[in-house]
Amino acid sequence: MGLLDVIGPVMVGPSSSHTAGACRLALLARNLLLSPPQRVRFALHGSFAKTAQGHGTDLALVGGMLGFAPDDPRLRQAFDEGVAAGLEFEFTQADLGDVHPNSVRIEMESADESVSLTGSSLGGGLVKAFKVGEFETNFSGSYHTLLVQHLDQPGAIAQVARVIADDDGNIATLYSMRNKRGGQALMAIEIDKRLSQHVLDYLNNVSYAVWVRMLPEVMADKPPASSILERNVDER
Amino acid sequence: MNLTDLSQVEGLASEAVIRAEVETGAVRDELFEQMRGRIREMRDSVRRGLESNAPSRTGMVGWNAKQLWEATDPLQSPLTKRVQAYAMAVNEENARMGRIVAAPTAGSAGTLPGALFGVADHLGIDDDLLVAPVILAAGVGQIIGKSMFIAGSTGGCQAEIGSSAAMAAAAVCELLGGNARQAIHAGTQALMNTIGLVCDPVGGYVEVPCVSRNAFYSVHAVSAAQLALAGVESFIPPDEVVQAMASVGRLLPPELRETGEGGVADTPTGRAVALRMAR
């Protein structure tokens, strides 16, 4: 937790964990998609399920899905903004197991793909993603995050690390988990910078990579009313 | 660096926090500029909060800060009134989904600006002199956050308002000339005397008791600074107090950790609000 995370974020109230943190989790999830989400279901766990309305968690989640930052005043009318953007959204309750009380699984559909992110809001606006689809993972949104779903074969992690190094990327954290031996794995690599577009294009075309995404940092201060949606790997 | 280490540095505690930050790659001038930005945002939320009497989402709060600010003061205590009004102004803005600075959380956002701006304005101190104390407040919050999650849902209100009060106490103490030892003992006293406080928001909303709680604990922070400046110290070392609070947080049952199912949330009136809002 940095000094500016303690005195911050600058945010629309009323709760850093239930509003700002929820918004950031949805922002991270939104950036998994290449095109705008058409449908999203928020499966709320624990305290998120019990006090979602009271804390504006529902508004913050929908706002994050639209690319709004935690300090964006449009969060107050996020439902109207969502409807205007043609987004279908629903809220359900779920038992996500022995996880932090402020947790949510965000299931999204766009025209081209379905993907989900499960994460927790840890307090003070800090968040942690611990699942993408069915893959266990661990990243915080405090850095630029490279996600590579890949075939479980020797050298995949070494090659990705090489490519990052060649682009002058410094790795802050790395988490990788496979679903089964010889199956597929997901690596989540938090990096101090956003990788260059040609590097992402390259990774997108290597034989072992199934799916590649570069997520923006969502913890940093942004100008007011900003949208934190980044051009993603397939977009030109 | 833990809180006890910070209390033992030479000179100002804020300087030690800045040094540590610069060692991890931060640029001193940039840090100051960022914190100035935070102070401007906090000031803005205080100003909006004092001017508004628009009700919150539930209608439980929204006019308390303005009401106090405009009331006569039978105690003839302009400092106390100012500190309380500023703190409630921020949290009422927060309750109506206004723009605020979490410090360290949104529910406890009023304590630091209440105490620090309240004291500064009472004494006519310029905002530029508040930057280093706010950095110290951030450093204190950062250290507490290493030992426990700063969230009502994991540690109860003690984790939120206890942290904000400790941060504010250290900041006010340094602003008024306190050295590192005094500033950290101010923070420690503030922290020790919030241990056990539960998180029991009525209906799950960050309104009751959160708004008035920030008023009370901003005064609590000023009080802790006053003790420390006179040389009164915490008998239990700072870091042991943090550990004690973390362990009490783990002992709190879920009903008393932001679920809206215990404490004043679980009163006939509190339950009625929850029912009304659910419809």
Structure notes:
The complex is a heterodimer of chains A (236) and B (279). With 236 residues, chain A is of the alpha+beta class. Chain A has two domains: 1-133, D-3-phosphoglycerate dehydrogenase, domain 3 (60s Ribosomal Protein L30, Chain: A, 2-Layer Sandwich); 134-220, 2-Layer Sandwich (Alpha-Beta Plaits). Chain A has seven helices and eleven strands. Chain A has helices at 3-6, 16-30, 46-51, 57-65, 78-84, 156-166, 197-205; strands spanning 10-12, 39-45, 88-93, 102-109, 114-123, 126-132, 135-139, 144-151, 171-178, 184-191, 209-215. In chain A, α2 (16-30) packs parallel to α4 (57-65) and α4 (57-65) packs parallel to α5. Mean pLDDT of chain A is 91; it is low at 232-236. In chain B, α9 packs across α11 and α10 (180-192) crosses α11 (210-229). Chain B is mostly helical. The relative contact order of chain B is 0.15. Chain B is built from 13 helices and one strand, in the order αααααβαααααααα. Chain B has a single domain, classed as 2-methylcitrate dehydratase PrpD (Orthogonal Bundle).
SSE diagram, text form:
The complex is a heterodimer of chains A (236) and B (279).
Chain A (H helix, E strand, L loop, with lengths): L2 H4 L3 E3 L3 H15 L8 E7 H6 L5 H9 L12 H7 L3 E6 L8 E8 L4 E10 L2 E7 L2 E5 L4 E8 L4 H11 L4 E8 L5 E8 L5 H9 L3 E7 L21
Parallel strand pairs in A: 2-3
Antiparallel strand pairs in A: 2-4, 4-5, 5-6, 6-7, 8-10, 8-11, 9-10
Chain B lengths: L2 H5 L5 H11 L4 H24 L12 H7 L7 H18 L3 E3 L9 H13 L7 H17 L4 H4 L1 H19 L4 H13 L17 H20 L8 H14 L16 H11 L1
Helix pairs in contact in B: 2-7, 3-5, 3-7, 4-5, 5-6, 5-11, 6-9, 6-11, 7-9, 9-10, 9-11, 10-11, 10-12
* SS content category of chain B: mainly alpha
Low-confidence stretches of chain A: 232-236
Roughly how much helix do the residues of chain B carry, as a percent range?
55-70%
Number of domains in the coordinates of chain B?
A: 1
Q: Which protein chains are joined by the largest interface, and how many residues does each one contribute? A: A-B, 39 and 58 residues
Compute the average pLDDT of chain A: 91
* Overall 3D form of chain B: globular
Number of domains as seen in the coordinates of chain A:
2
Shape, principal axes of CA atoms of chain A: globular
Q: Over the alpha carbons, how many angstroms does the gyration radius of chain B reach?
A: 18 Å
